[in-house]
Amino acid sequence: RIQILFELGDMPPESDAQRRVDELGPTGNLPSPLKVERECKSDDDEFVYDASFEDPPLLTVLSVYMGLSLLVLFGHLRDLLRRWGWDKTMTDSQESTNEGFVPLYNDFEAFYTRNVYQRVCHFWNKPLAGVPGAEIEIWDRQFGEYNERPKMLPTKKKYINIGSYNYLGFAENNGTCARQTITEISDGFGGGVGSARAELGTLSVHAELEKLVAEFVGKEDSLVFGMGFGTNSLNIPSLVDNPGCLLISDELNHASLILGARLSGAKIKVFKHNNMKDLERVIRTAIVEGQPRTRRPWKKVLIVVEGVYSMEGTTCNLPEIVAIKNKYKAYLYVDEAHSIGALGATGRGVCEAYGVHPRDIDILMGTFSKSFGAAGGYIAADKDVIAHLRTESHAQTYATSMSPPVCRQILASMKSIMGIDGTGEGQRRIKQLAENTKFFRTELKKRGYIIFGEQTSPVVPLLTFSISKVCGFAKEALARGLATVIVGFPATPLLGSRVRFCMSASHTREQLEKTLDILEDIEPLLGLKLSSKRYNYKNTKSKK
Questions:
Q1: Amino acid 340: pLDDT
Q2: For the whole model, what pTM was predicted?
Q3: What was the pLDDT predicted at 32?
Q4: pLDDT tops 80 at residue 375
Q5: What is the bridge-based pairing of β-strands 459-465 and 245-250?
Q6: 406-424 core/surface letters (b: 16 or more CB in 10 A; e: else)
Q7: 254 vs 304: CA distance, rounded Å
Q8: What does the pLDDT look like over 71-116, one tens digit per residue?
């Protein structure tokens, strides 16, 4: 009887729920769509939301799942032989010295490490021997049996670098930015601060950078932090800080956003990637039902999205998200890690690209490691929000301040983008990035590869679907002088293995054409042209 009463008390009062439904009005009753123009790539292109997704052929799906099934089957067989002492390989990933202890890591994680990752780990963790420019030098390594106990060799090789986050090419060791950074170390504040911002770690260069960031992104004030990942994970808990808050997250948000959401203690709801109907359904249902058990109204609702999604190459559908957040009186947090500097006519990110005023976004977050050739991140918002974070953010109170030379690198690159240095170099790089992105994406589509994302996104995922193919691609590409990034499970779904290219303003047309030639050379070996549109693709403007 007590259980029945509890369950009845857990239901929202019918009159209260109906009142909330009436207040919200019908679904889809949004303000008229904003007229959006895409200014960042070429004068004749319209900037509209048009993410490209294409399903793999059925034969590819069947072969991928069959291969994974065989891999798991033989993995369990090898583990059985290891347990009996007949197989002595790949034992480094097994806990052998903690008998009687609870395992430190999940059994499936250990299984995957032993039987999958360990076999192909030489395609990751490459030790660099220079700056990540258009070309890059990588130290050679020697691996033991089954890639155990790698050793670095004194030799190195040069490759075309099409995998680093260096969108505007500011990750360099010469030029104005590099000279100012070196001067900051020798004649300025040195290399480090040795304290948190809230104690003895705030310098004039931090204040100068925060003022410039706020001006650049169009907000009243900003805070800068030494780590981009920590900017999300340590600031979100200060914005939605109790179970009475609701955080609505895109299903493909970055791990730092997911961690911050979990640390916050807020109720988390997820909507399908860039699906505006699902976003409205989720937020509407949550508001009507209220908080769990008590059914009281939410104290606040925060929608969290990314400007450019680093694995998909898609941009968030910002105009419609803004319309939804205004209709339901929610707050909006936009992570511009991959869009700031890379999108928009003047590099001001997804807001400029879509023609949305920054005042319509409550919190703008970004990082300095992609377009500015540095490290760290920022939060930009109204002065009241920043004042709150100065006292409540764990990143502000406990984390060591951003290094002064890093601040100087960001200041120099940002002033170049804004044109304050009077050289026009920043605008030249933005335009070059746009041209490189459009050329490379267009050529990949013409040739029959399945790629994700929009035509203007500098993140270009080429789908292989099979983890075997993606590892084979990495091997063949390195042998031909091409260094890139490959991604597979668990960073993607089982059927989502891909090669991720990152465009840069520092790439020349010759280097991009050489990359395409290498792809064409590898393709017959692996069968990478899986698109059904390769024969009828036309280079025309996308339409809504």
A1: 95
A2: 0.86
A3: 38
A4: yes
A5: unpaired
A6: bbbbbbbbbbbbbeebeee
A7: 10
A8: 889 888 888 887 787 877 765 555 556 677 776 666 666 777 777 8
Residue type, 147: N
Task: Look up residue 122 and give its DSSP letter.
Answer: G
Write out pLDDT tens, residues 243-263: 899 999 999 999 999 999 999
Give me the count of residues in the chain. Answer: 544
SS3 category, 389: helix
Q: What are phi and psi of 159, to 5 degrees?
A: -135, 155
What token pair was written down for 500? 């991720």
- The values of phi and psi at residue 495, to 5°, are -100, 20
Contact 475, 467 (CB under 8 A): no
Q: Which residues contact 379 (CB under 8 A, 6 or more apart)?
A: 222, 223, 225, 231, 235, 363, 364, 365, 386, 389
Task: Give SS3 for 201.
Answer: coil
Q: Please write down the long-range contacts of 254-258, taking CB distance under 8 Å and 24 or more positions apart.
A: 254/306, 254/310, 254/335, 254/337, 255/229, 256/228, 256/229, 256/230, 256/231, 256/232, 257/232, 257/233, 257/304, 257/306, 257/335
Strands 459-465 and 497-502: antiparallel
The encoded tokens of residue 534 equal 């390769």
Identify the three-state secondary structure at position 336. Answer: coil
